[in-house]
Every structure is written in structure tokens, then in C-alpha cells.
Design goal:
about 200 residues, four-stranded antiparallel sheet, 1 helix, about 5% helix
């Protein structure tokens, strides 16, 4: 918005994932939660799209997609960034004046795959869609449909993580992604069998 420039780490192997309405896992026939799945799909279709991609400066980035919901000049604005714990010990290399050279070659950080999935589970926040008898309301402490982004570090390390991305940016432009978005992270420190 203010014309200031900024630098991002390179995106090499991490695949970009647009979180909005693309995933329909056909859960409508399930005996538990299935009757509400179509309402959940309708809710997802109305939310602000956010494009997530992992970068080799140590962050998973989330950028607003203004094409999915009218957002004016904020298309591409970063609305979320997450630094997995597993990359913390390596971040200091980015500030080394020899980074990218012979003595300290390019490093990988959040360089793995990302996938979107729906899950019928407990969530960190309350969301609602619609009104009256047809409304879909999911309160904290209740099981309901949630939308997750799961990913890995790939060449950047031995870790996987899960984010609850059910709520992105509301209709007033208020960012709903934050600390409670991060649901879990497991690394080789938790389980030595976790690979790259």
C-alpha cells in the first residue's frame, strides 16, 4: 500500500496453494458431520482467498488474493507469515555476509509441499455463515468442519506442520489469521523417524 519495497526469500520447491473454495472432499455422505459439509463448502466459497507458499528465508507466507473477493489495492498483500520452530537454529545463516557463496551456499528452509484438506474436528475460533435456521455456526469447543493447510520443510529440515485456515480475511478486510492458526508442528526432535 505505501509503495515501500521488501525482499522475500526464494521459492524453490514449495508449491503455492490457494486457500478458498477449491477443495471438496465429498464428505457429505458421512454419518458424522456430513449433513453440514455442503454448508461448509458454501462458507469456504465466500471467504477471502489466501495464497500460501513456503520460502527459503524461513517463512511460510500467506498473500491476499483480491480476485476472489473484492479487496481493492490489497491484492498480493502479505496477511500471514509463520516461521516453523525447526528452522530457528539455521536462520542466523541468512545474515552472514558469505551467504550464497562458496563457504556458505544457499540454504533451504520452508521448501516442502503444502496441501489443503478439510477435517471434522475442534477449532481455535468461532465462525458463522448464513443466518436463521440455515446458518452454519461453529463455536470453540464444538466439533465442526475446519479447513487445514498441512506442509513440510522438504530440503529445509525434518518437520511437518498443520494450520487451521478456516478463517482468512473477513468481509471487512480484517485479517483472521494469527497465532491460533498454528495448530501443530512435529519435527525429528519429536520423532526420529520423521524424514525430509
Amino acid at each position: 500500500g505505501n509503495g515501500a519495497s521488501f525482499v522475500l526469500g526464494d521459492f524453490v520447491n514449495s508449491n503455492p496453494v490457494l486457500i478458498q473454495k477449491a477443495v471438496d472432499s465429498n464428505y457429505g455422505r458421512l454419518s458424522t458431520g456430513g449433513t453440514y459439509y455442503q454448508k461448509f463448502l458454501n462458507y469456504k466459497a465466500t471467504r477471502q482467498g489466501v495464497l500460501f507458499v513456503g520460502g527459503n528465508a524461513g517463512m511460510l507466507h500467506g498473500f491476499k488474493d483480491a480476485k476472489s473477493v473484492a479487496a481493492g489495492s490489497t491484492d498480493g498483500q502479505e496477511v500471514f507469515a509463520y516461521v516453523p520452530r525447526a528452522v530457528y537454529p539455521q536462520l542466523e545463516k541468512l545474515t552472514n555476509k558469505n551467504y550464497g557463496g562458496v563457504t556458505l551456499p544457499h540454504q533451504y528452509y520452508v521448501d516442502g509441499w503444502q496441501r489443503e484438506a478439510d477435517a471434522y474436528t475442534y477449532g481455535p475460533s468461532t465462525y458463522s455463515f448464513g443466518s436463521g435456521a440455515g446458518a452454519l455456526v461453529c463455536n470453540v469447543g464444538n466439533k465442526c468442519w475446519r479447513n487445514y493447510l498441512v506442509g513440510s520443510l522438504g530440503a529445509g529440515g525434518r518437520a511437518v506442520y498443520g494450520l487451521d485456515v478456516t478463517e482468512t480475511v473477513d468481509s471487512f478486510g480484517v485479517n483472521k489469521l494469527g497465532a491460533s492458526t498454528i495448530r501443530w508442528e512435529f519435527s525429528s526432535n519429536d520423532d526420529s523417524d520423521i524424514g525430509y
